[in-house]
Amino acid sequence: MGSKADRPYGTFPRGGPMETETPASPPARRRWFDPAPGSRAMWMRRGAFLATLVLLAAALFAPPTPPPASADQTAAPPPTPAELYAAISPAVVEIHATDSATNETRTGAGVLVDASGAILTALHVVQDARLTVRFADGTEVPAAIASTLPAQDVAVIVPSLLPSGIRPAVMGNPGSLRIGDPALAIGSPYGLTGSLSVGSLREGAAARDIARRADPVRRCDQSRQLRRTAARRSRRGRRHRPRRTQTRRQQDRCWYRFRGHDR
């Protein structure tokens, strides 16, 4: 018990023990994500929460976006076999070959590859035979062999006379051919004139090689002298054997380049 001087004025001790005052605890620290009530940070958090709710509602109830149109829907459809036949058939010719030894006649087909009248066909059809070519308009004229490629069974023949208004076929890009691509065959098998067969490309390498060699074949056979000589020999009933003229020597050089030889 303290002295009188230690007691405040007017305070007297009582019988019980004196109560000690408990010091007040310091205020609790706020965490960084718990803003004070009424502060600016709290209102910003509430605004961000409301904005998030609005965006979610817009995403849930917005109408579905249509898928973008693909390129295939806008591209033109490929031509039908009937359309291709109408475009190519004027360049297809019918070939009648009469064997020189047995006098038997076989039928084949060829295609005009340029405006000079060069016709690309199969060698086994025209070899050792007298040839007659029938064009799409019905004109029939004699023809003769100009160049051959035995390794690929390919030959180029030239008619003695060209009808007016011929439409040669346009050679495509052989590098784009793939095995399995659609293929159309126009010809006269078994006497069926102007028939059409639809299938797929199987021997891609051979097709590319024939198309690659077709241009040298045309360059070797674009000669008026060659056509005049073919007509003269056809009237005599003999195979085409042009004389050793300057034009023939030029063709020989072209032929050797075509076969891959150096001369």
Question: What this model shows, in words?
Answer:
The protein is an alpha+beta fold and 263 residues long. It has a domain at 81-259: Thrombin, subunit H, CATH 2.40.10.120. 31% of the residues lie in helices and 21% in strands. It is built from seven helices and eight strands; from the N terminus they run αααβββαβββββααα. It has helices at 40-61, 71-74, 81-88, 123-126, 204-220, 224-235, 246-259, and strands at 92-99, 105-112, 119-122, 129-134, 140-149, 154-159, 182-187, 195-200. The chain has a six-stranded antiparallel beta barrel. It has a two-stranded antiparallel sheet with strand order 7-8. A hairpin with a 5-residue loop joins β4 (129-134) and β5. α5 (204-220) packs antiparallel against α7 (246-259). The longest helix has 22 residues, at 40-61. Residues 218-224, 242-246 and 251-263 have low confidence and may be disordered.
